[in-house]
Amino acid sequence: MNHRLRTGALAAGALALTLPLAGCFSAESAESSGTGDDARISLAMMQPPRSGLNPMSDDAFKLSRWATAETLVALDDTSDPVPALATEWEQTDDLTWRFTLRDGVTFHDGTELTAEAAAHSLRVATESSPLPRILDGVDMEVSVDDGQVVVTTGSPDPLLPNRLTSPQLSILSANAYDGGTISPVGTGTGPFELVSVDGTSSATLDRFDGYWGAPAAAAGIDADFVPDGTARAAALRTGTAHVVETVPAGQAASIDEELLHEVPMPRTNTLYLNAESGPFADPAVRAAAREAVDRAQIIASAYEDRADEAVGLLGPALPWTLEERGGADYDEILAGRAEPADVDGVEISLGTFTDRAELPEVAVLLEQQLEAAGFVVEQDVREYQFIESDALDGAFDAFILSRATVLDSGDPVAYFGADFTCAGSFNLSQLCDEDVDAAIDAASAAPAGEARRAAIMAAEAQILATDSAIPLLHERVIQGETGGVAGAVRDPRERTLVTNETRIDAQ
Predict the structure, then answer these.
(1) Which pLDDT score, from 0 to 100, does residue 507 have?
(2) What is the CATH number of domain 17-68+190-242+482-507?
């Protein structure tokens, strides 16, 4: 089976870090940064680097959002793989993939992108400890043959091109790897070159004139790390920053609505019900809990109407789900749900955690809704680190969790497998259902594209039919942009923010 895609264009920290309390901004404010080709884009980022911008860590997503580091493969809006530094790829047998690199790509340090340079970056990732999440459990060898990068897996992996889209598998020049550290400063391939990093305070990037694609519309990026939400909101109100990550919902009312853009996130708040023991071992009792939930009330009260009601486990951050959900086969599976039981005085325990500010309020609202239906609810709310092990052990009849539904591959099958299979490592519902396992296995084996999306939706329907997980809502994040910004990306996957097309127009 062959898959070909073509396009003409398309260390741990070596830095000494100290965490600022609120963040301070670069000397050049957004208001004074000019417009057009000479403009610099000012960013207020939510989190400072945790590992000195080591791409093996989650800091890689900053490198991706700044358009300084690139991967062999990218994702389109449907989470299908598309060319990036690789222009085409071919699966030559069940275990082997060959990637053809783009010609004329130069690293920021002036060296040329070659198959050996790309393979070296991937080998470093496979040998990293800990491994990048996307490679967890993946047996992968990387070699070079006839100018192509050859990736061989230990078992068939139809998702291999998707894996290579992870920012943690960015391709850096050989000069990035020196003495056990990895430095992205001056070693990427993107339209912006990372030229300096000031600990956990700020980072500076300049336009890279040797970029293989269209040159950046802006002269550079000045990124400040501002963990305090009030300070980020103030930066947007005062025009100190052009683009602001994650404006707190509580600050939104004090900001001009035209500057705020709500981005659906691939994160679902779900009520997990213990399907193995206790009252919810009975599917009819689980169905009664499902019927008791009033999502609109939860969203209006706990989220100030800044969330989307969940009709499934996957939400509007994956827009293809809106089209795929609800077909005849999907509806037929859901028709097999149990009828709700009459409950009167059924005692249940309900757990959640305090780390996400809205969840304790969600627990209060759910307690009221469940008790109105006849349940007697006892709450247990703790910090996540003190409650996770009990939740995983099935100590609660019900548990509320805010859960990321797509991981680094942009694909939700790993989430389904971890949360809902008999052998799942994060199976809060203690669910073990042959039909669910079979549906998730089928989705896991399906090739990327239309067939995989159809299999994913069939698996979602099988999970929902058990009523072991009741999706409540899909979260949104608020991105702030001043009036002069054009082309900032509102990316649900949080991989892209500034591109070569982002610019500052006259306000």
Answers:
(1) 59
(2) 3.40.190.10
287-322 pLDDT, tens digit each: 999 999 999 999 999 998 999 999 999 999 998 898
Mapped onto helix, strand or coil, the DSSP state of residue 330 is helix
53: β partners: none
Which amino acid is located at 41 in the chain? I
Alpha helices in 9-145 (DSSP H): 60-65, 115-126
Please state, as a whole number, how many other Cβ atoms lie within 10 Å of the Cβ of residue 34: 14
Find out whether 42 and 74 touch, Cβ atoms under 8 Å. Answer: no
Distance CA(61)–CA(39), nearest Å, equals: 24
Angle of helix 359-372 relative to helix 283-292, nearest 10 degrees, comes to 110
Indicate if the alpha-carbon torsion angle 15, 20, 23, 27 is positive or negative: negative
- Please state the rounded mean pLDDT for residues 464-480: 97
What per-residue confidence (pLDDT) applies to 107? 98
Q: Which region holds residue 187: left if phi is over 0, alpha if psi is between -120 and 50, else beta?
A: alpha
Q: What are the E-state strand segments in 274-409? A: 307-309, 346-353, 375-382, 398-404
pLDDT the model gives residue 8:
31
Rounded to 5 degrees, what are φ and ψ at 271?
-95, 110
CB-based contact 318:304 (threshold 8 Å): no
| Most confident by average pLDDT, 45-54, 265-274, 441-450 | 265-274
- Rounded to whole angstroms, the Cα distance separating 182 from 52 reads 9
Average pLDDT over residues 72-90: 93
Q: How far from chain centre, in Å, is Cα 51?
A: 19
Strand partners, 223: 43, 203
Residue 418's H or E segment, with its range, is helix 413-420
Task: Report residue 309 as tokens.
Answer: 């009601």
Q: Which long-range CB contacts under 8 A does 378-385 form with residues at least 24 apart?
A: 378/347, 378/348, 378/349, 378/350, 379/349, 379/350, 379/351, 379/352, 380/349, 380/350, 380/351, 381/351, 381/352, 381/353, 381/354, 382/351, 382/353, 382/354, 383/353, 383/354, 383/355, 384/353, 384/354, 384/355
CATH number of 70-181: 3.40.190.10
Model confidence at 355, in pLDDT bands (50, 70, 90)? confident
Q: Look at strands 96-101 and 86-93 and give their pairing.
A: antiparallel
Sequence ranges of the chain with CATH classification 3.10.105.10: 264-476
Give the fold, CATH level 3, of 264-476: Dipeptide-binding Protein; domain 3 (3.10.105)
Look up tokens 């990550």; give the residue: 245
Q: Delimit the CATH 3.40.190.10 region(s) of the chain.
A: 17-68+190-242+482-507, 70-181
Confidence of residue 179 (pLDDT cuts 50, 70, 90): confident
